[in-house]
Every structure is written in structure tokens, then in C-alpha cells.
Amino acid sequence: MPLVALTGGIASGKSTIARRLAEHGAVVVDADQLVREVQQPGSPVLAAIAETFGERMLRPDGSLDRAALGGRVFGDDAAIAKLNRIVHPAVRAESARRFEEAFAADPDAVVVYDVPLLVEARVDDPWQLIVVAHAPEDVRLRRLVELRGMTEADASARLASQVPDEARLRIADVVIDTAGSLESTLRQVDALWESIDAHIAQRAARS
Fold this sequence. Notes:
Structural class: alpha/beta
Distance between the termini: 18 Å
Order of helices and strands: EHEHHHHEHEHHHEHH
Largest sheet: 5 strands, parallel
Radius of gyration: 18 Å
Shape: globular
Strand content: 5-15%
Helix content: 55-70%
Number of helices: 11
């Protein structure tokens, strides 16, 4: 019952890795998608966000205005901490339910939790393997500008707001280098899939 954490900074290629693992048969649970789900209209999480940060965080239809919330908390450590205290417990509970559901359906499943904030929030969870998507900061900045249409200043600010690459690399059991071609990244993911059991055994031997 391998439970694998997949993490990486913005524009690191993490989603590409997750898609490839899913193609191989992994059950991928997307933390960002869970965040959106627990913040749906009528949810306790959304109510708490509105109470904490103001009704202006809601759109006229009652849904979360993500841009408004992002603008409110970005660069404000205290506000981010408040938001995390609201959102993280709900996401943790829902992700645990998804893991249990996947393993109940197939005890031999490989479940991959695609989670950007692993270092910040869940590094001590009982992962059997931690995989880190990695590319140098200059490569990721270029991707944000060229592929996502950000200004260089906005892209730099997003990168600076995240934990340093060194913090992710320190916890990695496997690093997928995404700085090269797509084909290179996919070859590394294919090799990882073929050797997941061996990597898990190596991690267990170190612990």
C-alpha cells in the first residue's frame, strides 16, 4: 500500500509528473483540488474564511473570490497562518478519506498525494516515499513568464514567497530533474514507477 508524496515549487513540473504516474496506474489525489472542494459555497471552511477576512472575499453568487483572497493574504505571514488554520485541517481530513477509499478499493494501489505545501504543512505524515520535482529558479521563472503570462516581477514574488528549494531537496527520497526536455522528465518518472518498491525499501532502511 505505497503512499507517495509528490511536491515541488511553482512551475517545477509537478503536474506533469503526477499525470505520468496516473498513466501508469497510480491513484493521484490532488491537494489543490481538495482545497477548492472544501471551500465550496455552504462549506464550514468558506464560512470561516468570510468571517475571518470579510464578506468581500465572496463573489455575488456566494463562491470564493480566489483573486481577492490571494490579494488579501499574499505577503502577509499572519494572514496566511490564519488561512492555513482554517483550510489545512479540512484538507487533511478529506485527503485521509481519499487515501483510505483508494486502498479499500485496491490494497495494492500506489496512491500519490500531489501536494505543493508538503514542507510547510505535512512533511511528518507517514509517507512511504517523498518525490520532489525540481528545476532551478531561473528555469521556473522563465516558465512563469513565458507559459503563464506573468510579469517578471510577479513571477519573482511568487517564487520568493515559497520555501527555498533546499528545504524540499532535504526531505526528498527521489528527485525528478525537470529542467531538461519533457522526454527527459518522463523517462525519469517511468524509471521511478518501475522502482517504487525498491525506493520505499531504501527509505525504510534509512529510518
